[in-house]
Design brief:
eight-stranded mixed β-sheet; 20 strands; elongated; 407 residues; alpha/beta; 12 helices
Amino acid sequence: MRTNSEAKTLAIIPARGGSKGIPLKNLRRIGGQTLLARAIESAFATPSVLDVVVSTDHPEIKAEALEHGATVIDRPAEIAGDTASSESVLLHALGTLDVLPQITIFIQCTSPVIDPDDLQAAINTVASGAADVSFAAVPDHGFHWSCDETGAAHASGHDAARRPRRQDREPRFRETGAFYVMDTAGFLEAEHRFFGSLALARVPEEHGIDIDTEADLELAAWRLANASPVTGIDVDALVTDFDGVHTADTAYLGQDGSEAVRVSRSDGMGISLLKKAGIHLLILSTETNPVVTARATKLGVEVAQSVTDKATVLNQWMAERGLDPARVAYLGNDVNDLDAMRQVGWPMTVADARDSVHAAARHRLSRPGGLGAVREAADLILAGIATPNTVAAPAAASGPLEPTLVH
């Protein structure tokens, strides 16, 4: 954490380990990153945020928070259960500080898409004195209904006999839970996140995802994959599995037990171009097979075979070459790639990878293994070299939306 005298704006992320709906939900991955990592990175990417604090009771969550640059506050057991309020966690975290921030941001990991521009706009609203609290909300033009004690339905907030068009209806707003920006002094006095004058920080509807179930996770992963097209990635190395990546995960078996595989010449050209560009390359295979050695020799690429612990070998390889794991891509297809994929900044999958492996990927290629997937990955890396920082940010409206005061 930076010195407290600089901490004008502090982000606090509660992340306990006892989630029952989805065990260790905060460490589940979307787009190749844990929900916690996404929240921390969004906070740090917001210009006014100087410090990010994670309050947790779980050692794995603590380790993940520290790895991504956050400060960790150990949460006492009495505020780590199901019935503990978010406010109690925020008050405890603020109580550990020697000097209080002017503005406190409460961020929830269960909202995996937070645009730093939207968060900054909410900070500006509170910092300017326009409101005491500004919180994320999405417009809702739906017709709402409620039921009485007999089960009969009644129109809520609209006239059931009148059905105006969507564009003719004033929207309601749904709280997303992503972030709440608060004047710290006012929050400490009220001990509740809704106090004083309130303003809606309107965010795009596609950012209103809130994860409570496995189905929510799947929907969020699908939305992210389709909303953030990748046109280039800026990395220094590409590590690949062999079977199912350089091949179609099949083999020709001779009567003497020998194996032969079919590979793509297009993949070979992609590897050649990456070598010329100075990209570090490694084939990492669980199998021990002469065809892997032969292909690696043909490509002029380092290879490690008989690897049961891909993550350990990968980490050692990166360390020996002084590579930043955040700037390394790994291309896999099956469950034995998962641990290695979690070590790098750009985990990717071939189009026909297992569903559980797709869920851990930051990008899913359009080509299947053995049919141009490696070339597709190479083209993305080469595009990233030609035009750095080409990775699309999360889909958002053109600039932050204007805050709406709540009366």
